[in-house]
Amino acid sequence: MNTIQSDFMSNRYEKGMEILKITNKDKIEALFDELEDIAPDLGRFVVEFPYSEIYTRDTLDLKTRELLTVAALTAMGTAPAQLKDHINAALNVENSPEEIVETIMQMSAYAGFPAAINGIKAAKEVFKNRNLL
User: Fold this and answer.
1) pTM of the model
2) Between vectors from CA 57 to CA 92 and to CA 123, what angle results, nearest 5°?
3) What is 60-133's CATH number?
4) Distance between CA 122 and CA 53 in Å, rounded?
5) DSSP letter string over 60-104?
6) Which part of the chain is the Carboxymuconolactone decarboxylase-like domain (predicted)?
7) Which residues of the chain have pLDDT under 70?
């Protein structure tokens, strides 16, 4: 890798980490620790693509992006740990518990009631852990 490529990759990482410091710094460090011995590049990819290239785009603010991420993860129904992480991130960027619950409830019409119920259960756990219930 030449110097220009190295600088570009370093800047992407730094840019992504700045967003993660705002949204969910503690969780990315845990992810790095978990991936260290088997796939350390995967953690870097998470920082450099979604957080550097997507989250920093100008059209949507972080508050909206996190609500959209909560909606998508709720609808997927296959990523409960990541859903909890993004519910925490949504709270960290000034979404209210009510906005998060409403976002998850909206998914009942498009992803089904089981997905919405599981999403609400995840939110309840996060809210309890943060003394919001």
Assistant:
1) 0.87
2) 30
3) 1.20.1290.10
4) 27
5) S-HHHHHHHHHHHHHHH-S-HHHHHHHHHHHHHTT--HHHHHHHH
6) 40-125
7) 1-10
